[in-house]
Amino acid sequence: MNSPSASSRPPPPVPRRTAVAAPATSRALGITPEPASVEAHARTTDVAAHMRRHLRLSLATVTVAVVLLLLAVAVLALAPRTGVLSVEGVGWIRLAVGACLPLLLVLIIPVYVRLAERLDAPGSVGS
User: How far is CA 41 from CA 37, 45, 74, 126, in A?
Assistant: First the structure.
């Protein structure tokens, strides 16, 4: 039943396992990447950098909105009460701020969306 040629064959080689590690771990362990993996890494997106760019954009957008709100409060608090022009007892400064501020805050939204889409575009810097 058992032929001598079947038992003399060596077992097939076991494939070597590949360990995936972050660049800092690889440097600490002294692992040098193969040239092919360096090229593949250069083509991939750095997720942390991408998230930082989006965080910066979000913070800039929120900062603009907060500055607009603070300016509106400052204008309303510091502007003298003017009785020259009023609409049903509301001064013209309060009317102008009340009409323009919501419009400016709403106009921030499409600007943010456009800039976020630009960051996500395939040809954007860092992608």
Answer: 6, 8, 51, 12
| pLDDT of 47 over the 70 cut | yes
pTM comes to 0.55
Range of the structural domain that residue 57 is part of:
39-121
Mean pLDDT for the chain overall: 77
User: Does residue 91 lie within any of the structural domains?
Assistant: yes
46 alpha carbon, distance to own chain's centre: 11
What pLDDT, on a 0 to 100 scale, did the predictor assign at position 49? 86
> Number of folded domains in the chain?
1
Give phi and psi for 91, each to the nearest 5: -65, 160
